[in-house]
Specification:
Chain lengths: 113, 110
Amino acid sequence: GENVEQHPSTLSVQEGDSAVIKCTYSDSASNYFPWYKQELGKRPQLIIDIRSNVGEKKDQRIAVTLNKTAKHFSLHITETQPEDSAVYFCAASLMDSSYKLIFGSGTRLLVRP
Amino acid sequence: NAGVTQTPKFRILKIGQSMTLQCTQDMNHNYMYWYRQDPGMGLKLIYYSVGAGITDKGEVPNGYNVSRSTTEDFPLRLELAAPSQTSVYFCASAGVYEQYFGPGTRLTVT
């Protein structure tokens, strides 16, 4: 089955710097890759996603890139702010009849003021 | 529109007890999922459902059961609770792509 690995497990950046989180997946048939943000004690919430027919997607300070050949995708946050501090999860899906997601293990991002 | 709701918010169980975690969504989503999240870890899929009357196992189904008699409800049953089931349980629903999560149930088994 699908396996998703996420790195790094923790990331500390200065406010205003960029942050990059990387994920690799094992099943070349996966074609949907969302990113979720989870604040302490809260539920995960979708922040951006990408499908396999595009290589990059941006939404204000957040972007996701996808390399299907290498089977990896990355989350880029620019001009980080303290409120970006949270745990970020990547996921992959075959988008078959179940639409189920396989999640990475998460990255704890700390943005230092 | 409440989205996805879960009850209870917290629960402490003794080893060997049973309980049902409730999950309800009001978005008329066909797809529903149960995950567990251990401290400092990612989300592991326990069971999922693609519609009323249809359920299937995820990555970590042992020790759990589910049912889906209506579109709105997807309860998760724990039989003979064990300390290894101490976790935060999230229910989610989806129309197609985006999964919407409930607030979670924090379960401790002692």
